[in-house]
Design brief:
The protein is an all-alpha fold. The chain has 4 helices and no strands. The chain has one domain (2-80).
Length: 81
Amino acid sequence: MLLWEELPGALPSVFAGMKVAALLAVADAIVGEFLGSDRGVGYLVLQVQVTLDTPAMFMAVILFAMGKPRNRRLGRADTFN
């Protein structure tokens, strides 16, 4: 009985928490790609940072802003050489 009375009032907080968790999950995936990958957009950012390739860095930032495309070929560092 308590569940049916409390749950509707708690739903806005539950959905707000899910929204924040979804955003943090994406940010954590990007950080994980920076730290432990050998391909992808995070790897591309690390490589162009070392070589000071400004146009490729802007492209990587645009790819991040687009929502991290799932196509692995877009994020491979050798694609931009």
